[in-house]
Amino acid sequence: MSWMTEHEDPYEQYDESSVRERPNPKANRPRSKQRPEHEDAVTGIVTAVDRGRYTLAVRIDEQDEAIVTAARARELRKQAIVAGDRVDVVGDTTGETGSLARIVRIQPRTTVLRRSADDTDVVERVIVANADVLLMVVAAADPEPRPRLVDRYLVAALDAGITPIMVVTKTDVADPEPFLANFAGLDIEVWRSSIDDPPVEALRERLDGHTTVAVGHSGVGKSTLVNALVPEARRAVGHVNAVTGRGRHTSSSTVSFKLGSGWIIDTPGVRSFGLGHVATANVLRGFPDLAEVAEDCPRGCTHLVDEQYCELAIAAADGRLEPRRVDSMQRMLGTLVAAREQRHQE
Ligand SMILES: Nc1nc2c(ncn2[C@@H]2O[C@H](COP(=O)(O)OP(=O)(O)OP(=O)(O)O)[C@@H](O)[C@H]2O)c(=O)[nH]1
Ligand SMILES: [Zn+2]
Asked: Is 297 annotated as a binding-site member?
């Protein structure tokens, strides 16, 4: 998966200096070393990343809109550049076959969605930048929906300041309501989708103008949904991206498509969603249905099962809170605390 292995970057030795750049027909300023600002840079949106090569959309919605392949400037080498990033790019931005531009700056990000390989992993991977909606795709069955995976998406999204939305697919295969009952106390937007009646038009309208990142366990129907959402004409743009991304290793890399005036970013299906990077103090943010009651906890309460006076446990016992939600939160916290202890022993 490209975003997981980005730090390895096997193309690192082939930096942009090894590729001859064509003269940029638009650059009329003389090249000079005294140009730290790169005034001639254009802004691009990173749509796909593949082993040190970045696919960018530049001059979007203008007549000379182009899909450009770029390398990163040497000074940016250690910084991850991910789908959704706004970057400043110089050099040949025509997008012509064989051309290579150069990313010289990453613009400040509004949000960063991260996951770690597992809970013990300190090294977090930035999955996507600048997303404001996390589309959690879950199947009603085949594969079985896993509430704990959704808990993890919620913690990651709310920690990052991204709005989570859920789509339950395959409602033709199984009744999604028993699964959804897990999240009844949570004020979360849920869409139901079946093979014959996916809510494509309504979702498209809902996501218009947003940068949406879709996540889901492998096989839930995420690609089917994303393909249905992205109109044919725009997918053509995506297909260009697919040459560098999905085309080569199916579903193993992140690709973005224009969706109305926004973007939808499809990520590889994953089984787990490590939260090694999330501070335990922030875990409760992913359980907004519990947060209010937790305010009555004794000072310094860890909310773990061994806390005698945890208000969450008390509220679960006397029926004010849904016991399985408190249990979910305690388990996640317990797992993260154990992983952290293991890390400190290593
Ligand atoms: N019955 C039914 N099948 C569906 C539905 N949505 C998708 N599928 C099927 O589920 C299978 C998996 O769908 P994909 O879209 O490839 O799943 P994915 O989540 O992208 O999986 P990865 O590519 O592994 O990440 C395909 O055979 C789809 O046709 C649905 O609503 N109902
Ligand atoms: Zn507590």
From this structure: yes
Question: Are residues 135 and 178 both part of a single domain?
Answer: yes
Which of 106, 126, 144 represents a domain boundary (last residue)?
106
Q: Does the beta carbon of 253 lie inside 6 Å of ligand 1? A: no
Contact 294, 177 (CB under 8 A): no
Query: In DSSP terms, which residues pair with 24 in a beta bridge?
Result: none
Domain count, the chain: 3
- Name the burial class of residue 34, with classes exposed (0-12), middle (13-18) and buried (19+) by CB atoms within 10 angstroms of its CB: exposed
Q: How far is the CA of 304 from the centre of ligand 2 (A)?
A: 7
- Same domain? For 256 and 117 the reply is yes
Probe residue for ligand 1, chosen from 220, 230, 250, 252 as the CB with the greatest number of ligand atoms within 8 Å: 220
Of 31-45, 164-178, 220-234, minimum mean pLDDT range:
31-45
| Residue 176 in contact with ligand 1 by CB distance below 6 A | no
**pLDDT tens profile 5-57:** 333 333 333 333 334 444 555 555 555 555 457 878 999 999 998 888 999 99
- Residue 8 counted as domain residue: no
Cα distances from 273 to residues 95, 162, 177, 276, 296, in angstroms, run 35, 16, 24, 9, 30
What is the value of ipTM here, to two decimals? 0.97
Evaluate: CB of 267 within 6 angstroms of ligand 1.
Answer: no
Which atom of ligand 1 is nearest to 216's Cα? 19
Which domain does 319 fall in, by range? 280-345
Residues 118 and 133 in one domain: yes
Give the residue ranges of DSSP H helices in the chain: 147-160, 177-180, 200-207, 222-229, 232-244, 280-283, 288-294, 311-317, 323-345
Largest CA distance in the chain: 75
CATH of the domain at 25: 2.40.50.140
The answer to whether residue 73 is domain-embedded is: yes
Instruction: For 270-326, write each residue's pLDDT tens digit.
Output: 778 899 888 888 899 999 999 999 999 999 999 999 999 999 999 999 999 999 999
**Chain-centroid distance, C-alpha 32:** 38
